Amino acid sequence: TDVSPTNQIELGAVVWISVFVGLGLALACIFRPKLAPFLAPLYALAEGVFLGGISKAFESQWDGIVFQAILATIGVFFATLALYVFGVVKVTRRFQAVVIGATLGIFAMYLFGLVLSLFGVDMVFWNDPTPLGIIVSVVICAVAALNLFLDYEFIRRNPDFVQLVA
Description:
This protein is mostly helical. The chain is about 75% helix and about 0% strand. It is built from six helices and two strands. It has a two-stranded antiparallel sheet. Helix 1 packs antiparallel against helix 2 (about 35-60), helix 3 (about 65-85) packs across helix 5 and helix 4 crosses helix 5.
């Protein structure tokens, strides 16, 4: 992972290979769950190589961003877990519908932006440091955090599934 003379991030071949190896291993675990205990560590290794390469690329562009992202992720995880465990946030059908709807809306926005970019239209305003871009990014982060509550509820309702995977 390097930064080119034009200040573009260049990911090495190992990073790209790890993406496809990870995808293949994930699909193998999905379609052959009995192999998951053996393939999961290899999947974790492949994803670790990928995330390490991406992290190195971002760190080379913006010093300290990886550490900040890790701290923010840990903080959001523990905050949402505490809110869920202490019953401050209740995952109702309505809550699930709103979070899933918001997540699908974000997916549609990204997909729409991707399709338009194929025709030369630049729709990535959410990446710009403008007030609108910042607001959109904060909303996306909030929806991502709300998805954690759905995960906690799934784990609570399906302990056998979690034991099967673990």
